[in-house]
Amino acid sequence: MLTDPMPAEAVETAHKQVRLAAEDLDGSRVATLVLEFADVWGVPALWEQVCRPLLVQLSGRTAAEIAVERALCEGVRVGLDVYRREPGRSLPTGGVLLAGAEKEAHSLGLHALAAALRERGRGCLHLGPALPWSAFTSAVHRAVPHTVVLWSQTPVTGRAYRLVRFARDFPLLRVYGAGPGWIEPLAAPARRLGTLSAAVEVCLDGTRSR
After folding, report:
1. With contact defined as beta carbons under 8 Å apart, do 76 and 30 qualify?
2. Exposure pattern of 91-121 as b/e (b: 16+ CB <10 Å)?
3. Strands 147-151 and 174-178
4. Local confidence pLDDT in tens for the 210 residues of the chain
5. Phi/psi of residue 18, each to 5°?
């Protein structure tokens, strides 16, 4: 597996192959391609240069576009979820908790982060999308993580004041907002993550500092 950015030719090829598979509504083929490209280029490069741009390009305005978008999303999710998993062997979470913001239905970015952490030999506690704030608080009390990452896809769910208040309620917890939904500035102690690579490093850094 390489860790450098994908060259332009490889990106173009990946875009074409993944998009064609999605247009054929072949989610299994999309998942296979995700696994193949991740093995060569690594999850961060695949996500930032292939998956995310393709997802942005599909506006979902027509019935046909919605179907293609769903096939792409499902294929990417499945590919990321099985990447570097070993049946019967769970990786240590290292005190990292991932979740989608309350009422947030999208969480592909968290699947990418979980896959990228497994790529580095580290697991996480991934609680999926649309986690109510009360459940998020309960999970922190039970799991006692050192780092939490909350994903928001749209400004409707990216409530900056809620995340900042949450971070202040847990002063020993490192709290991050990820995804395009956090359009308002995040005041300290909460912080925003702009890239998958940055998210991986802060999660690993917290593990190393324990």
Report:
1. yes
2. bebbbbbbbbbbebebbbbbbbbbbbbbbbe
3. parallel
4. 666 789 999 999 999 999 999 999 999 999 999 999 999 999 999 999 999 999 988 867 788 889 999 999 999 999 999 999 887 777 777 799 999 999 999 999 999 999 999 999 999 999 999 999 999 999 999 999 999 999 999 999 999 999 999 999 999 999 999 999 999 889 999 999 999 999 999 999 865 555
5. -70, -40
